[in-house]
Amino acid sequence: MSVSIKVNHDSIGLRLDIFLHDHYYKNQSRSYVQHLIKEDNVLVNGEHVKTGYLLKLDDEISIEAIEIKPLNLEAVDLKLDIVYEDQDLLVINKPQGLVVHPASSYHEPTLVNGLLFQVDELSSINGVARPGIVHRIDKDTSGLLIVAKTDLAHQALSKDLSEHKIKREYIALVYGKFIENEGTIDAPIARNPKNRLKMSVISGGKSAKTHFKVVDRFNHYTLLICQLETGRTHQIRVHMAYIKHPVVGDALYGPKDVVGSTGQFLHAQKITFFHPTKKEYMTFTADIPKEFKKLLNKLIQDSAS
Predict the structure, then answer these.
(1) Which architecture does CATH list for 69-160?
(2) Which residues are catalytic?
C-alpha cells in the first residue's frame, strides 16, 4: 500500500506518529506506526524523520507499508537455548534460520512462538506480535539476544540500548584480506530505494558505527570481532559489504554463489548489559555454531598446508 499525504492547517504541530495513527491507522497500534517510521517506510518531504517529528504546513508525507494480515501466535516447542533466566529477563542463544518475531509476510514459527511455549511471562510493550523483544538478530545470524519478561525491564533495557550502553560483540568471517588490524566504519545506513529488502550506506541515513578487530587471517578470508556502537538493520552486513569485505555466506550483500548453506557466518557471541533490578553488569557468551566452527577448522588446515 502506497499513500501520499499533504499536511494542512489543521495538522500543524502534531507529532507524525500520532497524526498517522489517528487519521490512517486507527485499527493498528501506535507502536506499529512507530515501527513503520523507524524502518524508513515513512518519509517526510523525501527524508527520514523521527517518530516525534512535528508536522509543518504543506509537508509531503509518503508511506510505503505492508498490508497487515492476522497473525497466528501459537506456542511452539522450538527447544530454545536459554542461556540465562530470572524474573525480569532472559538471554537466548538464537540459532541460524530462526526469525525473531512474526510478520504478515512470514508464516513459519518464530522465536516469539518458541518463547510463548517456554516462558510464562513476557513484557507487553511491543504488543502481541513482539512480546518481550528488546532487539533483533537477522534470521540467518545466530547468537545472543535479550528478552524482557516485565515492562519495567523492557523500558530500562530499551533506554540503555538507545543510549548505546548495551555492548554487543559479533564474530564474522568476511571475504578478503585486511591490511589494518582494527578500525571503525562510520557510515550512515538507510533502506535501499531500489530494493526494499536491502539496506545501504546512504548520505542522510541513520548514523551507524561498527568497530572491528582482526582475529585471524586465512588465504582468502579474514576472521573479525565486530562491536556495534549503533544497531541499524543489517548493520555489520551492510558495513562489511561497503568496505568490499562482505560477510561469507551472505547472498543479499555478497556473492550470490555463497559458501555454506546455513546463512551468513556471523554470530553474536557476547553481550554485556546493566541488569535493571539487580543493578549490576552482566556478561554472557555463546560459542559459534557447528557449521561455523567446521569451516574455520578447514580454513586453518588450508592455510597451514
Answers:
(1) 2-Layer Sandwich (3.30)
(2) 138
